[in-house]
Amino acid sequence: MFTKNLEIKPLMAAGVLLAILIFVVLMIKISCVDYDSPVVTNILSKPAGENISDMEKFSSEQDFKNYLDESSKLVEGYGGGFNMRAANQLGSPSFMMEKSAIDGMGAGGAPERISETNVQVAGIDEPDIVKTNGKEIYFSGWQRYYSIMRNNADRGISFNEQSKIAPEDQPQEKTNIISAFPLAGLKVESEIDKQGDLLLDEKKLVIFSNSNINYSQLGQEIIGYDVSDPESPEKKWTVKLDKNTSVITSRLRGGKIYLITKNIINSSRPCPFEPLFTDGTALNIQCADIYHPIAPTPVDAIFTAMTLDSSTGEIKNSVSFVGSSGSSIIYMSENAIYATYAFSGSVAEFFGGFVKENEDIFSAEIIAKIKKLESYDISENSKLQEITMLIEKYNNLFDNDERLKRENEMANRMSAYYKKHNRDLEKTGIVKIALENFQIESSGAVPGNLLNNFAMDEYQGNLRVATTVGLRWGIDFDGMGSGETASDVYVLDKNLQTIGQVLDLGKTERIYSARFIEDKGYIVTFRQTDPFFVLDLANPANPVLAGELKIPGYSSYLHPLDATHILGIGMEGSQVKISLFDVSDKNNPMEIDKYLLDEYWSEVSNNYHAFLLDKKHNIFFLPGSKGGYVFSYMYNSPECAKETVKCSRYELYKLKLKKAVEQNFVKRAIYINDYLYIIGEDKITVLNETDWEKISELELL
After folding, report:
1. How do 330-332 and 336-344 pair as beta strands?
2. Which partner for 530 in 227, 494, 518, 554 could form a disulfide, CB atoms 3.0-4.6 Å apart?
3. Which has the closest alpha carbon to 146: 138, 154, 134, 137?
4. Chain centroid to CA 598
């Protein structure tokens, strides 16, 4: 029984429903506080209603304060706020793009093939620690740190003795500019004493630097360099973030950097505020520049989306809106930026609804009083206290035997009610910013929580969203560990109104990976097995579950190899698992091959930028803790290559480990022409893709 499971003996007399009420209050207090925020707000929202999609700007600072006051009435005394789960991972599927270069090679010729960062949407670049233009490799890492740790370990120096190392030998953050092509000139050309994710726009290198930050005084820096002369990079501009400003993510397209930042609201002076400074000039956001949902919603943060000129760092456009700092995820399509924030529905209305749906076990007087409570302009906490008091008084009218019977009856009914209405408690708000005019075009909400940016995808004007419900509350009513979770997929129109949905995928499980490819969706959920779902989204108003496959382990990253084959990277037991799925028959997906790697982890599992696909050679790369691994995914049988021979999909597609490179701290791989550069913190190893022989190395000190 729920009360016994919680071991809260004083609640026994009050009944199971009272235990649930108090448990929910405790959950809000204990697990939903953003301890990283300088201000912990007292805000939760009502369930998403008709006005959740309507937004308007504040008229003044007082208007902003009034909005905060109005929202805080909903949960006064709870201690709100939400844990930030920043998804610094920001369409059509992204295949590894190739740049076309001028014809002709020669010693100084331009390469014909250049890999780019693995991104979600083709043509929209994302920040990562490695970039290349085909001539140079830009690598931002911790080379000095790793090489010192390795060398000291070899010399028998313990971790605790590292503090005795001379200052000049301490870890030095830096970005290396490496001459990579032609291969004969492989060398480090210069260093920049900053470290962080990189964006490269022709001859302009942008570093999102975390170096030398004094968090009590300064914030993050974004620095632009002219790298026309790779031996002498020149700093051109600097954007300094306020110490209370954090970068959610960024994108690069057409010479514009799209930057999204977050500021925790200062309740005593919420606006105006200055999130950043470009070469000393502040970006000043006025109160009348900030959007808010008309309906009271959870707000403890201000999000600002802006465009920066990659040549000058100048802010061209910006738009700000309020939301909650919890679970903020950003996705950018060719047409819009979508930003999400999490909020919760009204707990009082949730439990009030339970009483009204179970009128046979409550008196008419109790039901009437609870209905009347809904019209009171009092806080959420006060409403819960009133419900608790009413139920407690009512339960005290019964003897012990009847009370025990009621406890069991309410526990079972509440479990069923929660499964039916849990989507009323967990919501994700979505704000759509049109790239054409950089204004908020629409906003909306869906039940549940998003995993990452791959849980959103825009296709033919509609937004597809994959969510899991039951994660934020995880209530176990029967003490048997049967907290109900389920995953859903919603199709929203251009106004972010739901026009289609598929519900209850993978009950008792959560989403581990998602990928939308044209009119199909691929979802992986996991608890004990790995259900791989194929969704037919051809009719946005009537999406359907087309096929399902259950296999051991799970895939945390899905990557399309071609129109009919999906690669999954994840885990099975304690090993990295690679799955090859054939989805040519949407109703009958098949795992046609798998490979278990003797690795306990690969960065690809939580950072898709570490993955590389080379379609010319039918290979992909992933890093591990012991080195880097090159796999082929087509069998390339001489017999199958003959036009007169027809091979089955099992014969044609096969996972094979082509090359393993033992190397410390492998991070990424890129290709230039037919050379594969495996990049580690202390060394670059170059392989010839025609025979997979090692042909060059470069030490990074």
Report:
1. antiparallel
2. 554
3. 154
4. 27
Query: How far out from the chain centre does Cα 42 lie?
Result: 25
Out of 20-34, 157-171, 177-191, 359-373, the most confident range is 177-191
| pLDDT confidence band for 11 (50 / 70 / 90) | very low
pLDDT at residue 95 above 50?
no
Given a contact cutoff of 8 angstroms between Cβ atoms, the answer to whether 622 and 611 are in contact is yes
Ramachandran category for residue 327: left, alpha or beta (phi over 0 → left; psi -120 to 50 → alpha) = left
Q: Given the structure tokens 């109900």, which residue do they identify? A: 484
> Considering only CA atoms, which of 350, 271, 257, 340 is closest in space to residue 62?
271
Q: What is the mean pLDDT of the chain?
A: 82
Q: Smallest Cα–Cα separation from 408: which of 8, 131, 15, 6?
A: 15
pTM, to two decimals: 0.84
Report in angstroms the alpha-carbon separations of 473 from 24, 510, 516, 550, 594: 8, 13, 27, 27, 35
Neighbours of 568 (CB within 10 A): 26
Predicted confidence (pLDDT) per residue in 394-429, tens digit = 888 999 999 888 888 888 898 888 888 889 888 899
Write the CA distances from 636 to 567, 596, 655, integer angstroms.
18, 21, 11
Question: For the segment 343-373, what is each residue's pLDDT rounded down to a tens digit?
Answer: 877 777 888 888 889 999 889 998 899 888 8
**Alpha-carbon gap, residue 524 to 656, rounded angstroms:** 23
Q: What is the mean pLDDT of residues 15-19?
A: 51
The two structure tokens encoding residue 206: 């942008």
Tokens of 145: 């740190």
What CA–CA distance (Å, rounded) separates 138 from 128? 10
Distance CA 309, CA 653 (A): 45
Task: Decide: residue 262, CB within 10 A, 0-12 exposed, 13-18 middle, 19+ buried.
Answer: buried
Residues 327, 342: Cα–Cα separation, whole Å? 6
Taking CA atoms, 497 is separated from 49, 429, 484, 625, in Å, by 12, 12, 26, 44
Dihedral angle over CA of 356, 361, 363, 366, nearest 10:
-50
- Sheet containing 174-179: which strands, arranged edge to edge? 130-132, 136-141, 174-179, 187-192
Residue 470 has φ and ψ, to the nearest 5°, of: 100, -5
Tokens of 584: 């040519």
Determine contact, residues 597/575, Cβ cutoff 8 Å: yes
Amino acid at 61: E
Give the Cβ contact number of residue 687 at 10 Å: 24
Question: Any bridge partners for residue 187, and if so which?
Answer: 179
pLDDT greater than 90 at residue 393:
no
* Section 97-123 average pLDDT: 68
Spatial CA neighbour of 16 closest among 34, 2, 36, 5: 2
Taking the CA atoms of residue 89, residue 94, residue 95 and residue 98 in that order, the dihedral angle to the nearest 10 degrees is -90
Please list the alpha-helical segments (H only) found in 60-142.
Answer: 61-72
Cα–chain center distance at 659: 31
The verdict on whether omega for the bond into residue 182 sits within 30 degrees of 0, i.e. cis, is yes
The CA distance from 408 to 15, in Å, is 9
How long is the chain? 701
Cβ-based burial of 193 (10 A; exposed 0-12, middle 13-18, buried ≥19): exposed
Pairwise CA distance, residues 215 & 234, whole Å: 26
- In DSSP terms, 697 is beta-bridged to 685
